[in-house]
Design goal:
The complex is a heterodimer. Chain A contains 9 helices and 12 strands. By secondary structure, chain A is α/β, with parallel strands linked by helices.
């Protein structure tokens, strides 16, 4: 069993402190949802853990199976088993999905070992079928001119191909209509299991109707201020975030 | 004394004695050709080397241009040959300026009247065609001295004639190799595509070793008759210590279409001039180029699109990827003659800067005499987008591979213009070899 341990993490962009003492342990097999209003540092948290160079870790640690990953480049972290599903995936004109995923799969193989092309395509096509992605997609450029739904499905396809230990899913539901949301959620649910841990960042309860979390956390001003089970998400949906704020104010008063 | 010194610096290794020896080495050839060679030598010897004040050499490293220290190489009996993985209709291999082998693979080429031969044979067997088209176009882009040198010392080259109405499906491969240190070679390819014919020419330039100083002064003439469709792919992969001058000239007649793609990988300093003349209504010239510049390399590309007739079209897209301390120059001019109304001309130079030390220079230009035309031109230089790079890295792809993928993504806009997937893949593979070095 794997674990992703985030310990008292502090993250800044330039001089601005965004994440302020965030702690959470995720074990494989678990799905954690992080909820919270805009600007509380949810996306910053995900990108910092994935190794985005613009984010400075000013304190704390992130351990994957007991090893700190903070000294590693983004690509090393990914090969170690992390996957970030982007809120706004980059468009990469001229690089086909097939070539891109092939390079990503090849990067995980030992030096001198070559990818088996027919096996690769077989696996790719089966994952595409699962996500209801047209096979013609493989020759299209990565996310180039994709609709919001196509971009998110493409993220899930990559996740399915790369089989990470932990997936950080940043607002995967944003920009999706209900059909696309269902397809994306089904894809995640198929992958869900004892070998995958998920940190799901979302704004809305909607996604959690389809991917039911084991744990729900409320993030506020750069850290977790409240944790619970899936009923917490329903409570937030019904009452909004203000009561959390008030509770927090009462506690610190 | 002064005169002697000047003569020496103007001709370098290509002295009157060397020229006399070259003429003596040739088989019997038509008198007009020998006369032209002598006249070319005189022009070469009289013209000055490019100077700093010469606008057509702006940004070029003039100081590194030299004609000293080279020699006409000995003939060789064999040559290292790298397959480029494309099925070909015919193949000519030249080494040190002489024809080494000639293979016609598509069975009925001769029966259909197609001539694929050495220029020396063609000077005898297709004299009128050669006389009409060989180096017949003006040198307008600054390399008159080097084009004259080329004509004077041109030993042998390739000749392709596709008669009226004949279509050849597979490409014709022409390989030129420079072998040995200090070798000076003068490759030439002359292609005459008859009315309504179709052909694809793939030319490859390479050296026996990547570390030998060499001089290559090449030229080609492409002529597309009425309604002809001609594709030309040039792959320049000379030794990284070679100095290269290449002057290409294309004439496009009524409703003909020429697509050319030049891939620049080799040489320490490579000057490439491309002239396209849209000579009759409906003519279309698509001019494409891809360059991968490494530390220490300079690629100097000068282009001229001349619209001489109404309703003609040209479309130029040159893309350079610059790594390390490399340098590129693009200088392009679109000229629209007064009666070339309804011209549609496009010119674009895009540079991808992969290092802080790289230098890309762009000089796009227009000269329009007609009043009802559509001409656009532009040049951009950009760096790798850090968000794209992070996206690839977040999938486990190391930075170097990510940059390589993004460079191919940048090139794809050009490669995707090729109609043949096989050609597309072969060029990709060739570019990839440069990243593996």
């Amino acid at each position: 069993m794997s674990s992703l341990v985030i310990q008292d993490l502090h993250v800044a962009i330039g001089e601005k402190k965004i994440v302020k003492g965030f702690s959470l342990t995720i074990n494989s097999g678990e799905v954690h949802a992080i909820m919270g209003p805009n600007g509380t540092g949810k996306s910053t948290l995900a990108k910092a853990i994935a190794g985005h160079p613009d984010y400075t870790i000013t304190g704390g640690d992130v351990l994957l199976d007991g090893q700190s990953i903070l000294a590693q480049e983004a690509d090393e972290r990914a090969r170690a088993g992390l996957f970030l599903a982007f809120q706004y995936p980059s468009e990469i004109p001229g690089v086909s999905i097939a070539n891109f995923l092939r390079a990503a799969v090849q990067a995980r193989m030992a030096e001198g070992e070559e990818i088996d092309a027919s096996g690769y395509y077989k696996r790719l096509y089966s994952k595409m079928d699962l996500l209801k992605i047209d096979r013609k997609f493989t020759s299209r450029s990565v996310n180039d001119g994709f609709s919001g739904g196509e971009k998110k499905r493409c993220e899930i396809l990559q996740m399915a191909m790369l089989e990470p230990k932990f997936a950080l899913m940043d607002e995967t539901d944003s920009g999706l209509d209900i059909d696309a949301l269902r397809i994306v959620a089904d894809g995640v649910n198929v992958m869900r299991g004892p070998n995958l841990g998920v940190l799901m960042i979302t704004h809305y309860q909607r996604l959690l109707d389809h991917i039911v979390p084991d744990h729900v956390h409320v993030m506020w001003d750069g850290r977790i201020v409240k944790s619970g089970d899936k009923s917490l998400a329903l409570e937030l949906e019904a009452k909004g975030y203000d009561w959390v704020k008030q509770e927090l104010a009462a506690a610190t008063a | 004394m002064t005169t002697l010194t000047e003569t020496k610096s103007l001709v370098g290794a290509f002295t009157p004695e060397a020229f006399a020896a070259h003429l003596a080495s040739l088989p019997p050839l038509p008198q007009w050709w020998l006369d032209r060679k002598r006249a070319a030598y005189d022009r070469f010897a009289a013209l000055p080397m490019p100077s700093r004040t010469d606008e057509s050499w702006r940004f070029s490293n003039i100081g590194a241009l030299t004609l000293e220290g080279f020699a006409l190489p000995a003939a060789v009996k064999s040559s290292p040959h790298t397959s480029i993985g494309i099925k070909k209709a015919a193949k000519l291999i030249f080494a040190n300026g002489r024809l080494l082998s000639r293979e016609l693979r598509t069975a009925d080429l001769a029966a259909r009247g197609v001539a694929i031969d050495s220029l020396q044979s063609a000077l005898v067997n297709h004299e009128a065609l050669v006389r009409e088209h060989l180096l017949a176009q003006p040198t307008k882009l600054g390399s008159a001295k080097f084009t004259a040198l080329h004509e004077a010392f041109l030993d042998d080259g390739a000749f392709v004639h596709v008669p009226r109405g004949v279509e050849i499906d597979d490409p014709i491969g022409i390989f030129s190799y420079a072998l040995g240190p200090d070798a000076a070679i003068f490759p030439h390819t002359l292609v005459v595509a008859g009315d309504n014919s179709r052909a694809c020419i793939i030319e490859y330039f390479g050296s026996g070793s990547d570390t030998e100083a060499q001089l290559a002064v090449g030229a080609n003439d492409l002529y597309a008759g009425h309604g002809a469709q001609l594709t030309y792919i040039g792959k320049q992969d000379w030794s990284h210590r070679a100095l290269s001058f290449q002057s290409n000239s294309t004439v496009v007649r009524r409703d003909a279409r020429v697509q050319s793609l030049n891939l620049h990988l080799g040489a320490r300093q490579a000057r490439h001039e491309s002239l396209s003349q849209l000579a009759a209504p409906g003519a279309f010239s698509e001019m494409l180029a891809l360059t991968v510049a490494e530390s220490g390399q300079e690629f100097d590309q000068r282009t001229l699109q001349i619209h001489q007739a109404p309703n003609t079209k040209s479309d130029l897209l040159y893309k350079n990827a610059l790594r390390g301390a490399s340098k590129t120059i693009f200088s392009g001019l679109i000229v629209v003659d007064a009666d070339a109304q309804k011209t549609d001309a496009y010119q674009s130079n895009r540079n991808l800067m992969l290092s802080e030390e790289a230098e890309a220079n762009s000089l796009p230009g227009l000269e329009i005499q007609a009043n009802d035309v559509r001409c656009t031109h532009g040049a951009t230089s950009s760096r790798i987008d850090p968000e794209q790079e992070f996206y690839l890295q977040s999938r486990g792809i190391a930075k170097e591979q990510a940059d390589e993928l993004l460079t191919f993504g940048f090139f794809e806009e050009v490669l995707s213009r090729l109609a043949s997937d096989e050609l597309h893949d072969a060029l990709r593979a060739l570019i990839q070899t440069k990243f593996k070095q």
